Records
---
Amino acid sequence: MKRLIVLAFVGCCMLLVACNEDKRTYDYYIPTPIEGWERNDTLHFSIPPQQRGTYLMNMGIRTTLSFPYQDISIIMEQGIYPKGKTRKDTIRCQLFGEEGKPMGQSGISSNDQSFYIRTLELNNNDSLHVTLYHCMRRESLPGISAIGLQLIAE
């Protein structure tokens, strides 16, 4: 009898885990030097071929309190292949509030924020190549520990 109860409990747990479907098809962070992300240090993301569908693209930024500004401006260049379609945007992300309080999820030594970038319509086997670099006044930005991209199937 005990064995039957344990098996039923394990079965229920497996069903609950199976219902939690993660729709992320790409989620990757590239670390940057905390002492200073240089303007000419371009980050490259190669997103593998995807299935036909609609995707949300988000960008994640991990910062420390040594970041000297309230926001950051980043240039994103995106190419969809094999179409050869390219797009270039400037993205402005608010990282800290008026009183210098970090926005987003705060950890022990860093802050993590996610920003919606756009919705993409992709065909079967479309892949993406995305490059990111900052366009701030300072040549070197301290306090950025990592930048990431996330692709989520709708």
Note: Confidence is low (pLDDT under 50) at residues 13-17.
---
Amino acid sequence: MPPRAIRDATAEPRWVQWTLVGFALAFMTLFLFIPLATVFVEAFRKGIAVYLASITEPDALSAIRLTLIAAGISVPLNLAFGIAAAWAIAKFEFRGRNVLLTLIDLPFSVSPVIAGLIYVLVFGLQGWFGEWLRDHDLKIIFAVPGIVLATVFVTFPFVARELIPLMQAQGIEQEEAARVLGAGGWQMFRRVTLPNVRWALLYGVILCNARAMGEFGAVSVVSGHIRGQTNTMPLHIEIAYNEYQFAAAFAVASLLAGLALVTLAAKYVVEQRVRREMRDSLQQGDQPE
């Protein structure tokens, strides 16, 4: 079919196009742009001095520090797990492969609150290991380890889910060629597999980090809401807002909103780089030898 016929078959009247674009912009303005702008307006409503005081007071600094700790631990763990799981699922055939693939999607189908309750039932004082943990003076629930565990659970699919489809599409031909040439397992992964998925890997890490810093449900269940100790940034925002400390709540919320904007910017840069590399590879493939 000629290209013009294809364009005519898929083209819509101009008024339909503008209607769809207008509807999309109106929807985004109502549910995205206005709420986002409101966060920053409310954060700076009482001036920069109040804003700085709100994000530098001890409880806020503790919440920021704990959020960074949880993300700093969970993201590398999920990075290692995501690479290992994607490599195993995409490059090897083994019994239980589909089960592993299904389990990776589990946090997407289970409410974060339920995930938090599971950790309470397992590691809480009345849980399966509660007595043993108490006897050995170990505390997981209502402490930093529980927050890290909950964060790891809700974020572990992101890296793996970005890598698996790409690795499956790439196949195993390049790895087999590297093996024939004498490359070992680690050398094959470092020089063949990893360079081919580096941008998808970075994309997954960006999403994983954003979710780790913004997680509320699972962390809320296992944290205990102890001021200055187990409150992350989302929990600090909730407490400040419920206590009518609106300036403090919106000030910390603006930090999370800023993180979201930085995440979107990084995501856009990665997507553009991937598109550019795909376009360059297609152009090189079309060139005559």
Note: The mean pLDDT is 85.
---
Amino acid sequence: MNLELTEEQAAVRRLAADFTDREIAPHAAAWDRAESVDRAVVGRLGELGFLGLTLPEEYGGSGGDHLAYCLVLEELGRGDSAVRGIVSVSLGLVAKSVHAHGSEEQKREWLPRLCSGEALGCFALTEPGTGSDAAGLTTKAVRDGGDWLISGAKMFITNGTWADVALVFARTGGSDPERAGHRGITAFLVPAGTPGLERRTVHGKLGLRGQPTAELVFDQVRVPESARLGEEGKGFTVAMSALAKGRMSVAAGCVGIARGCLEAAVGYAGQRQQFGVPIASHQLVQELLSDIRVDTDAARLLTWRVADLIDRGQPFATESSIAKLYASEAAVRAANNALQVFGGYGYIDEYPVGKYLRDARVMTLYEGTSQIHKLLIGRALTGVNAF
């Protein structure tokens, strides 16, 4: 196994690192306080090709492999996880789903705009009453002539208030027992300006404050049959295939958080003096730093394994769960350890580690909680469904 990056991958990483250092990291604290990143950053992400990674150039994508995609998300996660989340959702969950399951017309309509940053997408799966039990969603879509009428609500939707198109999952099985659960779910592409769609900003989040998060309410939202993404009744497959890759995106962003924690803690430990010497010379501080380093490297290698499997066309769902589980928990540990190195200064937002901790905490919750991923990994090991 050769873990050395290709020239192209190394160049993409340098580009992402430079962009993060110049245009994201210096503003992360201000965006966090304002509860909004500067929306102009979306256009810059598109200009650099970061919103079209892995997608074909014929649809406006910038090509590249999934390892390059992970490298970019690691750098963005190091700078501000709120920005990483915007990319992960619009590109990783929405644009890639359109490319994998969409009609030629849908690809031509949406992919060039999503890849350029002219448009953003949101992934409307989670509901106020259904999180881990995605197959139990209650949003409904019923036929009305040649159209569909969608009614229901979605919650905690990243990019929800900024998105130009929502990838919405709704129940179309009606009362047919043969189409209950996951068999009765269909995916739709719903333009943001469609009458009957209301978007409400979610305020007061613990972390990822700069990332637009919303509740979406659908009141008889009418969309044509051409808005359906994939086959009727196959929406759950669309959602799960998107999330399998999306978990790799989250893991890559968590590697960025852990690395950011390490760099900040090492720098501070070399400058801060106690008992007449830099605290970096104290063995228990070195232990904290070494734990962060080990977690960062392990999480990165688990994430790269997923990217390699995807690029080689191999099964990767279980490995993606492993990477997401480990990397998200590792990011929390890294942030906790970094805060301990900073001491009281880590508890104020003049320094970055408090934000890293707040941002890391949600990573163990969304796109599958840590407990759900343990169940998925256990089921893969035993062949027994533990739900």
Note: DSSP finds eleven helices and ten strands in the chain.
